[in-house]
From TrEMBL:
Cited InterPro entries: MoaB/Mog-like_dom_sf (IPR036425), MoaB/Mog_dom (IPR001453), MoeA-like (IPR038987), MoeA_C_domain_IV (IPR005111), MoeA_C_domain_IV_sf (IPR036688), MoeA_linker/N (IPR005110), MoeA_linker/N_sf (IPR036135)
Lineage of source species: Bacteria, Bacillati, Actinomycetota, Actinomycetes, Micromonosporales
Listed name of the protein: Molybdopterin molybdenumtransferase
Species the sequence originates in: Micromonospora halophytica
Pathway assigned in UniProt: Cofactor biosynthesis; molybdopterin biosynthesis
Gene Ontology MF annotations: metal ion binding; molybdopterin molybdotransferase activity
Record's compositionally biased regions (Basic and acidic residues): 137-149
Length: 419
């Protein structure tokens, strides 16, 4: 069989590309079906994880009546005789006699029998040491359960853990949280033409994805160790099979760069076949990034692992990350897929016919506008370095200036809130 005939046969065997939105839904569903197990972790070790159970409070919040000002806890009408002081962290004796008061600090427990709290700056002392003043009509303390009642669900399972959530959990009395184990990811870099140091030249190009993709994966909440990044892997089928088998032994997700087509040194598809993988998605109708894929393998332990094939062109690889890897990781973590925000195009963006076009944009958050960038070829990274995300131009449409379009945000650090 000639080279041309073999290429034509391989091309004919590839199914039609999945629509971009369909591919994301499909990938999320398989990720959710393989959601990672729940583990208990100390609060200080939960940032960037995902709640595996709803966050509930162990007590009323606040748990007891708490003074919201510095002043005087008084009983009855004044002037009042001072009989003590209440500081935060103590349980005070009740006020049982009208005309008495105790000095009270912000955050201290309000004594039983208190009828009002008089602010310190609105009080005065008589010559014989008694306290006078007019309390405000509204109580100057927080009632038990004002924020939440014991056992109340505050946040659902699937909520990303960030510093605000950690503080809330601590205020509820939690020392640990049940969270999803973070996905462990590995990266295999394919391509004999790649250099790992120094400037490109003499027909060889610098590997830009080996250093960058692990950082993107960490921003999606993955664990990626230096030993989990391997490459360049030799352009042979045995080397590809061995590298994939080794990475899959420890990783929940293995990302690969390059080799997603059917060229003479593209060995990813045959390697996946040799390992018994099945495709969740094999090519996506999106530009750039069309030859992306996600495959699924069942390990000897029964646990499902995934291989995400990222195209070798750098921007195309990042399109594959936001298109397939992001929804997969949301599913594995038990999170809902975040709703895409919308922005108004400040300039026109061309469509790509029957394909979804993901166009790099910079956002003006104050104005709510998206500005297309230059230097956005699939092999370029200059535009990506100044981008906030990708504007989604749906198939069969063009992005006219003034149109409201979805935007796929680039990932932030774990725990950071999106725009």
């Amino acid at each position: 069989m000639s080279t041309e005939t073999a290429a034509a046969t391989a091309e004919a065997a590839v199914p039609p590309p999945a629509g971009w939105e369909e591919a994301r839904s499909r990938v999320y569903a398989v990720g959710l079906a393989a959601a990672l197990p729940a583990v208990s972790r100390p609060l200080a070790d939960t940032d960037g994880h995902t709640l595996a159970e709803p966050l509930t409070t162990r007590t009323d919040l606040p748990a007891f009546p708490t003074s919201s000002v510095d002043g005087w806890a008084v009983r009855g009408t004044g002037p009042w005789d001072v009989i003590g002081r209440v500081l935060a962290g103590n349980t005070p004796a009740p006020l049982t006699v009208d005309g008495t008061t105790v000095e009270i600090a912000t955050g201290a427990m309000v004594p039983q029998g208190t009828t009002a709290v008089l602010r310190i700056e609105e009080s005065s002392r008589t010559s014989d040491g008694r306290v006078t003043g007019t309390p405000r009509p509204k109580p100057e303390w927080r009632e038990p359960g004002e924020e939440a009642h014991a056992g109340e669900e505050l946040l659902p399972a699937g909520t990303p853990v960030d510093p605000a959530l950690i503080g809330l959990a601590a205020s509820c009395g939690h020392d640990q949280l049940r969270v999803r184990r973070q996905p462990r990811a590995a990266l295999l870099v394919f391509g004999d033409e790649l250099l790992t140091a120094g400037p490109p030249g003499a027909g060889r190009v610098r590997d830009a994805l080996g250093p960058a993709v692990p950082a993107w994966l960490r921003r999606y909440g993955c664990q990626v160790r230096p030993s989990d990044v391997v490459g360049p892997v030799a352009d042979t089928l045995p080397a590809h099979v061995a590298a994939l088998r080794g990475a899959l032994a420890n990783a929940d997700l293995v990302c690969t760069t390059g080799g997603t087509m059917h060229g003479p040194v593209d060995h990813l598809h045959p390697a996946l076949e040799a390992l018994g993988a099945d495709y969740v998605v094999n090519t996506v109708a999106v530009r750039p990034g069309f030859p992306m894929l996600l495959a699924r393998l069942a390990g000897a332990d029964g646990r499902v692992r995934f291989v995400a094939g990222l195209p070798g062109n750098p921007q195309s690889a990042i399109v594959a990350l936001v298109s397939l890897v992001a929804p997969l990781l949301a599913g594995l973590s038990g999170r809902p897929v975040p709703a895409l925000p919308y922005a108004t195009l400040a300039e026109p963006v061309p469509g790509r016919g029957a394909y979804t076009h993901l166009a790099l944009v910079r956002l003006d958050r104050a104005a709510g506008t998206a500005h297309p960038l230059r230097h956005v070829g699939s092999a370029m990274l200059r535009g990506l370095a100044g981008a906030d995300g990708f504007a989604v131009i749906r198939p069969g449409t063009t992005g006219e200036a003034g149109a409201r379009v979805p935007v796929v945000p680039l990932p932030l650090l774990p725990g950071e809130r999106s725009w």
